[in-house]
Design goal:
This protein is mainly α. 61% of the residues lie in helices and 5% in strands. The longest helix is centred in the first third of the chain and has 35 residues, at 2-36. β1 (39-40) and β2 form a beta hairpin. It has a domain at 31-63. A two-stranded antiparallel sheet has the order 1-2.
Amino acid sequence: MACRQQEIQSQQKNAKKQAGQKKKQEHDQKAAANAALIYTCTVCRTQVPDPKTFKQPLESKHPKTPLPPELADVQA
């Protein structure tokens, strides 16, 4: 009977530990995704990860604003 009680406690402890690790892993993924957003639009403050993806909405949403110098030679 004591063995069964220890087994139940062990299972509960393991479930709690796994839930904590899963929550921590989700948080790390969010942080990594936010860290990947490098470029920020100067007009609407939209963040994008790479120059190609940055140039497309900049040209379509803000056609009158000049392109930043780092996007001058990027192929969209």
